[in-house]
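call fold(seq) -> C-alpha cells
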Amino acid sequence: MKILLIGSRGQVGQALLATLPAIGTVTAWSRADCDLTQSAQILPQVLAQQPDVIVNAAAYTAVDKAEQEPELAHQINGVAPGCCPRPTGPGGSSVWGDAGALLYGLCV
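ret:
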C-alpha cells in the first residue's frame, strides 16, 4: 500500500512516520515538499504520487498567532485538505486528521 503522509515533521507526523511503515510504503512530505498555502499546487503534486492512502498530519497549530493570521490558518487547516483528491482505486481511502484537535484533546 502506498501511503502519502503530509506534515511529517510535526509532532503527530513524526509519530505516524514511526508507525506507518508497518502497513505500507510511506512517502513523507514536510512543508518544503508541499506548501499548503499554494492550493493550486497541491492536487498535481498528490496525483503524481498516486497514493492509496493520504494521511494529513499538517495543521496550523499556533493558536495565538492564528488570531493574528486567520487567513493563513484557514488556508492550511480548512482549504488545503479540500484540495487533495480522495483515492478511488480498489481499497483506496484517505484519512484526514486535524493535528490541532489531536494535540488539544478535541474530537476529530
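The longest helix spans residues 70-82.
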